[in-house]
Amino acid sequence: MRVMIRNARYDDVAGPVEEILEAFPKAWKGASVLVKPNVLGPWTADAGVTTHPSVIGALVRSLRARGARVMVGDNPGLRGYAENERSFRACGLLAAADGAYVNIGRNPARVKINSTFVDEIAVSGEILDCDLLVSVPKFKTHALTMITGAVKNTYGYIVGTEKALLHSLAVTLRRFSEIVVDVYALRPPDLSIMDGVVCMDGNGPSGGRLLDAGKIIASDNAVSLDAVMAHMMGVRPESVPMLAVAHRRGLGEIDLAKIAVDGPLEAIPGFRMPRTFIGGLVGPFIHRFVFPFLRTTPRFNPDRCTRCKVCYEICPVKAISWDDGPVLDRRKCISCFCCMESCRFRAVELTGLIYKVRDRIAAKDAPGGPASPPAGNGT
Ligand code: SF4
Ligand code: SF4
Q1: Architecture of 277-365 per CATH?
Q2: Does the structural domain 2-262 have CATH classification 3.40.50.11440?
Q3: Domain ranges, ordered by start, for the chain
Q4: Which ligand places an atom closest to the C-alpha of 377?
Q5: Which ligand gives the minimal distance to the CA of 163?
Q6: Ligand 2 site, CB within 6 A
Q7: Using CB atoms within 10 A as the burial measure, which of 14, 152, 272, 369 is most buried?
Q8: What spacing in Å lies between the alpha carbon of 338 and ligand 2's midpoint?
Q9: pLDDT per residue as tens digits for the range 55-65
């Protein structure tokens, strides 16, 4: 397993992208190639939530120069295909795709999946039919799964609202990690090129803090790539349930001693992980009946909330009711954080006894003060 790390800036990313394509040769000429960025929703590029347009622009040009027939597509967030083009336009990827954008949410196929939780799911036809798939994830944390990276980027194979439904079937982090890997195993990317020029720590994938890491990281094995990212975040790859599951199933190496790392591998100083995951590690019974008033759950900030109703519509277990604004039923909430992930106004904050204790410890330890200051409303 090989992982390549290169220094990069958004105004000078073409060189590293070229170097990566040379280092991981594929039969590009004449092939239909799907480039899959991480498009969480209609965020602007400077919000640091979505793959940066300069990376996608450089990749599209380099692949075309090799004779590939390029498509650029993703299934943003947890809503249907109607949100697709709006999201690509907002984050600058519609322009960066330079005519290669495809709304892959319009072409779902129901496929059998080897999973304990579900028999079949709706996946974009382009994911299944393309000759080569290049995943272009973002270097970010995730309040539920700890990391958002190359493996989690493949969860966007699923079309629309079924993503949220799987959260309700999983309930806990351990079970959800199994589902994420089930989806990844449907079609592991042929190459993953991670945008770590600006990365996100704290309560990602949309509410964290932006850091300049200045790195592009690539591998033809997404699991090993994520193991390197976890190391750079300062955590042991085997402590990330999603990576432990993928490794156990033989999908990739996560032992850094067994991965050939080409480039500067350094932990990012002061990188902060989300303070949410402890509650997710317990079993479903404890989660349901013991933890409701201890574990981390969302809280809606009325000063930021625009009453757009997205969280209310998206919650997979209907834990949010509406009374001139979102109202949470903590007993129903499964702490999947889909509402936080989907709120473009960063009005969904986190609370709960475990969260507050971890927050207080981390704030004391961190020289820079409390983590995760919102970086704007992303609109
Ligand atoms: S998604 Fe955010 S802004 Fe919209 S109703 Fe929910 S909390 Fe308010
Ligand atoms: S309220 Fe938010 S965190 Fe709780 S189950 Fe619904 S979407 Fe998930």
Answers
A1: 2-Layer Sandwich (3.30)
A2: yes
A3: 2-262, 277-365
A4: 1
A5: 2
A6: 298, 315, 317, 319-320, 328, 333-339
A7: 152
A8: 6
A9: 999 999 999 99
